[in-house]
Amino acid sequence: MHYRLHHSTRYDYSAEVALSHNEARLLPRELPWQRVGKTELAIHPQPMRLRERRDFFGNRVAYFSIQELHGSLEVTTTSLVTVSARPLPEPGHHQPWEQAATCLRQGTDCLEARLFMLDSDFVGADQALADYARASFTPGRALVEAVYALNQQIFTEFTYDPEHTTIATPLLDVLASRRGVCQDFAHLAIGCLRSLGLAARYVSGYMETLPPPGQPKLQGADATHAWLAVFIPGWGWLEIDPTNGCLPDERYIILGWGRDFSDVTPLKGVMSGGGNDRLTVAVDVIPLAEGEAV
Q1: What are phi and psi of 194, to 5 degrees?
Q2: How far is Cα 155 from Cα 33, in angstroms, rounded to an integer?
Q3: What's this model's pTM, rounded to 2 decimal places?
Q4: Which residues form the signal peptide (predicted)?
Q5: Cβ atoms 157, 92 nearer than 8 A
Q6: Tens of each residue's pLDDT in the chain, 294 residues
Q7: In angstroms, how far apart are the furthest CA atoms of the chain?
Q8: Which domains does the chain have, with CATH numbers?
Q9: Rounded to a whole number, what is the distance in angstroms from the first to the last CA of the chain?
Q10: Cβ–Cβ < 8 Å for 66, 116
């Protein structure tokens, strides 16, 4: 699938800002199944400094600073991306999940994943999370089969409710209420897996959405999306999406990944001045014909 991504973020301040330093994680990653073509980053006001780097997780980060009085900040990215099918474990991948947890604790071939077993800012291991996950992670069950089951368990038992949670809502409150958004469900699944001694990372990106039948797709009506990937010893990282109860496919475009949302916040920074900011975000994921792709 070929896509044009357009992501615009605008802050309007109640008082002028004299100085700001910012990081944007809005540039898609290059992956074996994801090819990134032309990418443009437009910032207004014009920054004094702008440079790109890779963070600890390999995500693309644009750092910029603005050193003039400004009453608003607008950051717009446009990217051309081609996404193909992701690899999946063979049906015969029958490693029990307990054996995978042992490998992560003791095996030298799992070192890259151990960071994603640890507590992070928004996700901490807890017995309540482990207890919830045991409906899917029964004794001796194959890890891949159990992961698929947990994906469906959260999808079936939780209600998508954008009014119920904020970024600060504790994970155990999400578990108790059975309500939240994609970010909450990704954090919940990660917490369940880490509480069982497994490794999971948070994935940030986009998913192509379709309007209701007979209605046009509204400009700017798409949004960023969150899901997760689970480490399968001896195979690699397997992505799941508990919000939609499916496995990410060609409709899913990855921006970056980390331990949780705090590692892949789309835009963050510090500033001198401002206050009572008004945030406006518009996202478009536009499918392209073969001839339009880079």
Answers
A1: -65, -35
A2: 26
A3: 0.92
A4: none
A5: no
A6: 899 999 999 999 888 888 889 999 999 999 999 999 999 999 999 999 999 999 999 999 999 999 989 889 999 999 999 999 999 998 777 899 999 999 898 877 788 899 999 999 999 999 999 999 999 999 999 999 999 999 999 999 999 998 888 888 899 999 999 999 999 999 999 999 999 999 999 999 998 887 666 666 654 457 889 999 999 998 999 999 999 999 999 999 999 999 999 999 999 988 887 777 888 888 999 888 776 655
A7: 62
A8: 2-84+265-292 (2.60.40.2250), 97-248 (3.10.620.30)
A9: 12
A10: no
Please tell me whether residue 125 adopts helix, strand or coil conformation.
coil
Let me know if 91 is exposed, middle or buried by CB neighbors in 10 A (0-12, 13-18, 19+).
exposed
Query: Tokens 């073509």 identify what position?
Result: 37
Sequence length of the chain is: 294
Identify any residues that bridge with 2 across adjacent strands, giving them in sequence order: 82, 288
The residue type found at 60 is R
Do residues 255 and 27 touch, judged by C-beta distance below 8 A?
A: yes
Instruction: Supply 229's token pair.
Output: 């990937």
- Cα 99 to Cα 225: distance, rounded to the nearest angstrom: 32
How big, in percent rounded to 5, are the helix, strand and coil portions of the chain? Answer: 25, 40, 35
Residue 139: both structure tokens together = 């004794």
Instruction: State yes or no: cis peptide before 45, omega within 30 of 0.
Output: yes
- 245, 83 Cβ separation under 8 angstroms: no
Two tokens, residue 178? 């059975």
Residue corresponding to tokens 């357009």: 6
Stretch (H or E) spanning 31:
none
Distance CA(233)–CA(43), nearest Å, equals 42
Distances (CA, A) of 219 to 183, 222, 253: 23, 8, 18
What is the C-alpha to C-alpha distance for residues 266 and 264, in angstroms, rounded to an integer? 6
